[in-house]
Automatic annotation (TrEMBL):
The keyword Hydrolase is assigned to this record: yes
Annotated keywords: Hydrolase, Thiamine biosynthesis
GO cellular component entries: cytosol
Residues of the active site: 244 (proton donor)
Disordered: region residues: 1-31
The protein's name: Aminopyrimidine aminohydrolase
Domain of life: Bacteria
Organism name: Planotetraspora phitsanulokensis
CDD domains named in the record: TenA_E_Spr0628-like
GO molecular function list: thiaminase activity
Sites where the protein binds substrate: 82, 121, 175
Protein purpose: Catalyzes an amino-pyrimidine hydrolysis reaction at the C5' of the pyrimidine moiety of thiamine compounds, a reaction that is part of a thiamine salvage pathway. Thus, catalyzes the conversion of 4-amino-5-aminomethyl-2-methylpyrimidine to 4-amino-5-hydroxymethyl-2-methylpyrimidine (HMP).
Amino acid sequence: MEIENGAADAHANGPHASADAHGNGPHDPPTYAVWRSTAADPAFSEWLRSASEPDWTAVVTHPFAAAIISGEADMRRYLVQDFQFVDAFTALLGAAVAAADRFESRVPFGRFLGQIVTDTERSYFHRALAELGAGADDVISPELEPVTVRFRALMDEARVSQEYPVILAVLCLAEWIYLGWASRAAEPLPERFLYREWIDLHSGPEFEAWVGFLRGELDRIGPSLGEDGQARVLGFFREAARLERGFFDMAEG
């Protein structure tokens, strides 16, 4: 996939694509109500995931993800661009705290924001980018790839919406799909921290529990949204999946 084409495709088929009276575009899957009537797992989050194919599987099995697992990926371009999401992702987590419909749901977002994003993950980025010889300009103001621009815009759109289901859709896709590829790694992991810690950050019991929480929130509120609301959530989830695929294509070069 060419980077520009990937970004354009995501824009054309994303949450603003034309839809019929039921909120479905010409290439959209069945509504949740129709799908769940025959699904082995009727969870709302599983409907979102299955509807994101083939992009979901393309990311989870992506050659660049496999190269990270094997310790052979060229991480410089990938991490320089990925670091540009940290601020937007942090703001999106803050929006989730504000938009959540109950206290019990706000707490995990606040905990993850404080313990992981602003501490563990940020520390990894600084050490990894230094290891890769990235200068201040590369870290603070690099030339952004088109797919990076589109993904940050999607995060910002979800944040500004202040719609909890929409915010959840983008957060859940981003975290769940990373768990998907990172969970394919088997011991022994690469010795170099550049790869090992990146895999560890996106796998293991704690990260699985975090993704399980995000999925559980979607499963809790999704079925009661109505067709229009469900279609809106699906649009954001699918566009995020397309952009993740485009991002990995960009990283592979």
